[in-house]
Design brief:
The structure holds two protein chains of two kinds.
Chain A lengths: L1 H15 L1 H15 L5 E3 L1 H7 L3 E6 L9 H14 L4 E6 L3 H13 L2 E7 H6 L1 H9 L3 E5 L6 H14 L4 E3 L10 H9 L1 H14 L5 E5 L4 H7 L9 E9 L17 E6 L2 E6 L23 H9 L3 E6 H15 L5 H15 L6 E6 L7 H10 L1
Parallel strand pairs in A: 2-12, 3-4, 3-6, 4-5, 7-8, 7-12, 8-11
Antiparallel strand pairs in A: 1-2, 9-10
Chain B lengths: L2 H11 L4 E7 L5 H13 L5 E4 L10 H11 L5 H12 L6 E5 L1 H7 L28 H11 L3 E4 L8 H9 L3 E3 L1 E2 L5 H10 L4 E4 L14 H10 L6 E4 L5 H8 L4 E4 L1 H9 L6 H12 L3
Parallel strand pairs in B: 1-2, 1-9, 2-3, 3-4, 4-5, 6-7, 7-8, 8-9
Helix pairs in contact in B: 2-4, 2-12, 4-6, 6-7
Chain lengths: 376, 289
C-alpha cells in the first residue's frame, strides 16, 4: 500500500501543477503527434448505407497506438518522483513499445515483463523494445500472458519500490492507476469533441471503442459522459464462443463474467465458480485479459455505456474491410470497434453520425492475420 | 480466549517462541495435507497456516505459486478445504488459519440468488450498503468456525477495506490476521492494531514470499515499531529457511513463519508417501537451535 499512497500523492500534485501539464502538452504535440485527425470514412459509410462514420485516428500517433498518451504522462510523473528504474507489463507489446520509447526519450532504465506465449506471438514488438534499449523479461508462470506479466511486474515493484516506478498500461489495477490512466487518455475524447463539433455543428449520436483493460474507450467516452444524447458502446472480445476460456467478454454473465477481485481491483472478472481466474482467448492480444477497468464496471451497472462483443471472425472481416475501403490497416483490437460500428451504422439514419476510436494501426498484426487467412 | 490467543499465552508462560509453518491445501493432495497438519502439530508448531490455492498469487514467489498450481490440478473448493480442516481437527487442537487471496473466499460467499448481481450494489468490505450485498461473509465465518478454523489472513484485503469482513469474523470468534511491511506507515500500523486479532504478521522485507540467504535487519525495526501500537503477538515471515534464521527472529519476535522452504521440501518428493516424514524432519530441524 505504501507505494500506492506515494504514487497517489505524487499524481494529485502533478494534476494541479501547471508546469507539469504544460510539459505534457508540449510533448504530446511535438513528440507524440497530437492532435490526431478525425477522418470521415466515406467509403465505409457508403458501404454500410446508414450513419456517417468518423474515425478518431490514434493509429497515427508515434509508436502506432493510443498507449503513448499514457506512457508520456506517467514518465513525467516517474521523473518528478525521482525514480530511475521503470518497469511495465505488456500483452501485445504495444504498451511495452510505448514505455520503452519514453524511457529512451528520458534516458531511464526500462524492464518490460511479457508472457512467454505473447513473446512468441509478438516477436516483432519484442525486437522493437530491445532496439529502444529495453530489457524484455519472459514470464513463464501461470498462463504466460498479460495477467501473469502484471503479476510479475507487481512482484518486482513491491520488491524494488524505493527506486522503481511501475508504469501500468491500462485503466485497471489498484487506485490511482484507473484514474490516472483515464486522465492521460481523455485527450482522445476532448479532441474528438472539438473536432466533431467543428465538422458537424453538434455532438455525435454514438461513440464506439474496443475494451480490453479499457483505456482507449474510457479516454474517448469520458469527456462525453454528461451528454445524455450521446450513445456509447464498448466492444469486448467475443473470441471463438461464449464458453469460459474461449473469449474475453467480462460482461457476458453466461460466459463466466461476474464481480470479483483481481490484482487489487474489484470489477467484473472471468472466473470459474470457485473464484479461480479463467484463461481467455482473443485473436487480438490487447483484448485478452480476464478483468476490466473498474470505471467500466461502474458505467455498465449505471447503464450509461452499453457493452457488447464481436467474434474473432467479425473482427477479421472488419480488418479487411477497413483496409480495402479506407486504405487504413487497423489493429485487431480496433477492428472489434469497426466491426460493431458497421452493424450499428446500418441501423441508423444517414442524418446521424458516429465516432469510432481507431486505437491503433495493424502493422503488428499482419503476420497473425496472414496465418489465419492461410489456414482458412 | 481464542485458540490462537491461548497458544501464544501458553508460549509466554513457558518462555518459548513460536513456530508457524505454511503449507498449501491440496499440495499435492488433500489427504497428504491433512497428514501434514497432524505431523506439523506433533513436532511442536504453534499454529498452522493453511494456504488456499489461487491462480494468481501476486504476493508469492515461484515456489508457492507452483504449490497452488499443483493443488489446482484437483478441482476442489473452499468446502473441501473446510472439510480437510475438520478431518485434521479429529486428531489435533493446533490452531489453524486460512491464508488466502480474497477472490476465492468472496466467490464462496456469493448468495445463490445474486450470482450475477450488479457490481455497484456490492457491499464494499468496509460495510457500505451491506443489505444489498451479493456476498455473505456470515456463511464463510460460520462454516469456517464449525470446521475448526481459528483465523483468516487475506493477502490482498487491505485493512482500510476490511472493516466488515473482520467484524463478521469476530462475531464468530475467528481472528483476522493482517500483514505489515517495512514500508508500512505509522498510520497504517495504527489501523492494523485496531482491526487485527490473534497475532500480527510482519513481512521481513519489501517483496514477495521465498527463501533468502540472509534475513534483513528491517524486520526487527518493524517489529519494534509495531509494539508501540499493539500488544498482540507478532510473527515474522518471508525468507526464513534455516535454523539460524529462526533463532535470529526469535530474538525480537514472538514467532517465526516458514513457508517456501517447507513447500520446496514437498515439491522435491517424487513419492507422496515420503512427504510427511521429510517435512516433519525438516520442520524439527528448524526448531533445533
Amino acid at each position: 500500500m505504501a507505494p500506492l499512497e506515494e504514487l497517489t500523492a505524487a499524481y494529485e500534485a502533478a494534476r494541479q501543477d501547471d508546469s507539469f501539464q504544460a510539459e505534457l502538452n508540449q510533448l504530446l504535440r511535438d513528440y507524440v503527434g497530437r492532435p490526431t485527425p478525425l477522418s470521415f470514412a466515406r467509403r465505409l459509410t457508403e458501404h454500410c448505407r446508414g450513419a456517417r462514420i468518423y474515425l478518431k485516428r490514434e493509429d497515427l500517433l508515434h509508436t502506432g497506438a493510443h498507449k503513448i498518451n499514457n506512457t508520456i504522462g506517467q514518465i513525467l510523473l516517474a521523473r518528478s518522483m525521482g525514480k530511475r528504474r521503470i518497469i511495465a507489463e505488456t500483452g501485445a507489446g504495444q504498451h511495452g513499445v510505448a514505455t520503452a520509447t519514453v524511457c529512451a526519450l528520458f534516458g531511464l532504465e526500462c524492464l518490460v515483463y511479457m508472457g512467454a506465449e505473447d513473446m512468441r506471438r509478438q516477436a516483432l514488438n519484442v525486437f522493437r523494445m530491445q532496439l529502444l534499449g529495453a530489457e524484455v523479461r519472459e514470464v513463464t508462470s501461470g498462463s504466460q500472458t498479460l495477467k501473469d506479466a502484471i503479476n510479475e511486474a507487481l512482484r518486482d515493484w513491491v520488491t524494488n519500490v524505493a527506486d522503481t516506478y511501475y508504469l501500468l498500461g491500462s485503466a485497471l489495477g489498484p487506485h490511482p492507476y484507473p484514474l490516472m490512466v483515464r486522465d492521460f487518455q481523455t485527450v482522445i475524447g476532448r479532441e474528438a469533441r472539438t473536432q466533431i463539433i467543428s465538422k458537424e455543428n453538434r455532438l455525435p449520436d454514438c461513440l464506439i471503442a474496443c475494451v480490453g483493460g479499457g483505456s482507449n474507450s474510457i479516454g474517448l467516452f469520458h469527456p462525453f459522459l454528461a451528454d445524455d444524447s450521446v450513445r456509447m458502446i464498448g466492444v469486448e472480445a467475443g473470441g471463438r464462443g461464449s464458453e469460459l476460456g474461449q473469449h474475453a467478454a467480462r460482461f457476458n454473465s453466461n460466459g463466466g463474467g461476474r464481480p470479483g477481485v483481481l490484482q487489487g481491483t474489484m470489477s467484473y472478472v472471468l472466473q470459474d465458480e470457485r473464484g479461480q481466474i479463467a484463461t481467455t482467448h482473443s485473436i487480438s492480444a490487447g483484448l485478452d485479459y480476464p478483468s476490466i477497468g473498474p470505471e467500466h464496471a461502474f458505467l455498465h451497472d449505471e447503464g450509461r455505456v452499453e457493452y457488447t462483443s464481436v467474434s474473432d471472425d467479425e473482427a477479421l472481416n472488419a480488418f479487411e474491410m477497413l483496409s480495402r475501403l479506407e486504405g487504413i490497416i487497423p489493429a485487431l483490437e480496433s477492428s472489434h470497434a469497426v466491426a460493431h460500428a458497421m452493424k450499428v451504422a446500418r441501423e441508423m439514419n444517414d442524418d446521424q453520425f458516429m465516432i469510432v476510436n481507431l486505437s491503433g494501426r495493424g502493422d503488428k498484426d499482419v503476420n497473425t492475420v496472414r496465418d489465419v487467412l492461410k489456414s482458412s | 480466549m481464542s485458540r490462537i490467543t491461548a497458544a501464544f499465552a501458553n508460549l509466554k508462560l513457558q518462555n518459548h517462541n513460536g513456530f508457524i509453518p505454511f503449507i498449501t491445501a491440496g499440495d499435492p493432495d488433500l489427504q497428504t495435507t491433512r497428514d501434514l497438519i497432524v505431523e506439523l502439530a506433533r513436532i511442536g508448531s504453534t499454529l498452522i497456516e493453511l494456504g488456499v490455492p489461487f491462480t494468481d498469487p501476486m504476493a508469492d514467489g515461484p515456489v508457492i505459486q507452483r504449490a497452488s498450481e499443483r493443488a489446482l490440478r484437483h478441482a476442489f473448493g473452499i468446502a473441501d478445504v473446510l472439510q480437510l480442516v475438520s478431518e485434521a481437527r479429529k486428531e489435533t487442537d493446533v490452531p489453524i488459519i486460512l491464508f488466502s487471496y480474497f477472490n476465492p473466499l468472496l466467490q464462496w460467499c456469493q448468495k445463490p440468488d445474486r450470482q450475477r448481481g450488479p457490481l455497484t450494489q456490492v457491499a464494499l468490505p468496509d460495510g457500505r450498503a451491506s443489505d444489498t450485498s451479493p456476498f455473505d461473509f456470515e456463511k464463510l465465518a460460520r462454516e469456517a468456525r464449525q470446521a475448526g478454523v481459528d483465523g483468516v489472513l487475506v493477502t490482498d484485503l487491505v485493512p482500510e477495506e476490511a472493516g466488515e469482513f473482520a467484524a463478521v469474523l469476530k462475531q464468530h470468534d475467528l481472528d483476522t490476521i493482517f500483514l505489515i511491511a517495512p514500508t508500512s506507515t505509522d498510520e497504517r500500523l495504527q489501523l492494523v492494531a485496531e482491526r487485527a486479532s490473534g497475532f500480527i504478521y510482519a513481512v521481513s522485507r519489501a517483496g514477495i514470499t521465498g527463501a533468502r540467504e540472509q534475513m534483513s535487519a528491517e524486520a526487527e525495526k518493524l517489529v519494534n515499531r509495531m509494539r508501540k501500537f499493539s500488544d498482540l503477538p507478532i510473527a515474522v515471515g518471508f525468507g526464513i529457511s534455516t535454523p539460524e534464521h529462526v533463532a535470529d527472529v526469535w530474538r525480537y519476535a514472538d514467532a517465526a513463519v516458514v513457508g517456501s522452504a517447507i513447500v520446496s521440501r514437498i515439491e522435491r518428493c517424487d513419492d507422496s508417501q515420503a512427504i510427511v516424514p521429510a517435512v516433519g524432519a525438516f520442520a524439527s530441524s528448524l526448531l533445533s537451535t
